[in-house]
Design brief:
Blueprint (H helix, E strand, L loop, with lengths): L40 H5 L2 E2 L3 E7 L2 E7 L2 E3 L3 E4 L5 E5 L2 E4 L4 H22 L5 H14 L8 E6 L2 E7 L5 E4 L1 E5 L2 H11 L6 H18 L7 E7 L2 E7 L7
Antiparallel strand pairs: 1-4, 2-3, 2-11, 3-12, 4-5, 6-7, 7-8, 8-9, 9-10, 12-13
Helix pairs in contact: 4-5
């Protein structure tokens, strides 16, 4: 038998089109890119802010955190007189709320969820160093609008307090203050803080710092919330009057 050659006439492939949309960018959207904020300066003046004064103090036995209770619009109109500006986010840690109410609430909920996931996956609680790094990373890359919280907590190394800025900066200190009344509160802490305060003494110093801010700062007022953090957990209580604390 003779082998016969067969050929199949296949159609030529189409030429690639080079007529691309000049506005098309194959690299958009970039990984980690955040949507642009359309708020202008007039909008920023109307953001519901806590104004606020928040304090964190370390002691040999744990951490004390304190905040005022007022939420305001730009520090000019009181929108709420009983805002709890300190929330538990970890079995032995809490975050204060300063800046935009919505941004702070979203940030607290996110950190609480991440801390719970860590515990579920690893069977242990996050250290305060790890938790502070997590907070900084979220603030640096997350859509949390105008927040400047304090992280306070206790781990195997003792009590820790960190101030967190909106750009993701994390600074550890023996005591710290954030918010519109910070200068007034810092004056009290500078004169009364010592590194051997008891929890009860730290509560008094923190309450005095908040009271000093409330007297002169229009963004702070209406009482004080105190959080007492030890290796046993977080205890938060509110006081409308300072007399019982001083």
């Amino acid at each position: 038998m003779r082998n016969e050659e067969f050929s199949i006439d296949a159609p030529e492939p189409p030429e690639p089109s080079l007529d691309l949309d000049p506005e098309f960018d194959p690299y958009e959207p970039e990984v980690g890119e955040l949507p642009e904020n359309d708020l202008n300066e007039a909008d920023l003046d109307n953001v519901n802010k806590t104004g606020t004064t928040t304090i964190g103090i370390t002691t040999p036995d744990g951490v004390v955190m304190a905040t005022d209770m007022r939420a305001s619009l730009g520090g000019r109109f009181v929108s709420n007189k009983d805002v709890q500006k300190v929330e538990q986010v970890h079995p032995t840690a809490a975050l204060t709320m300063a800046g935009s109410v919505g941004g702070a609430q979203s940030f607290i909920e996110t950190i609480r969820a991440e801390a719970n996931l860590y515990e579920a996956r690893r069977g242990e609680d996050m250290s305060m160093g790890a938790l502070s790094t997590l907070c900084g990373n979220f603030l640096r890359g997350g859509p949390f609008f105008l927040v400047s919280p304090i992280l306070g907590g206790v781990d195997s190394e003792g009590g820790h307090v960190y101030s967190l800025d909106p750009a993701g900066g994390v600074m550890r200190d023996d005591y710290t203050v954030t918010g519109s009344g910070m200068q007034l509160a810092y004056g009290v802490l500078e004169g009364q803080y010592t590194d051997d305060l008891s929890i009860e003494e730290a509560r008094t110093v923190a309450a005095r710092g908040i009271k000093s801010a409330v007297e002169r700062d229009t963004g702070s007022g209406n009482g004080v919330y105190l959080a007492e953090i030890t290796e046993e957990g977080v205890d938060i209580e509110g006081h409308k009057k300072f007399d019982e604390l001083l």
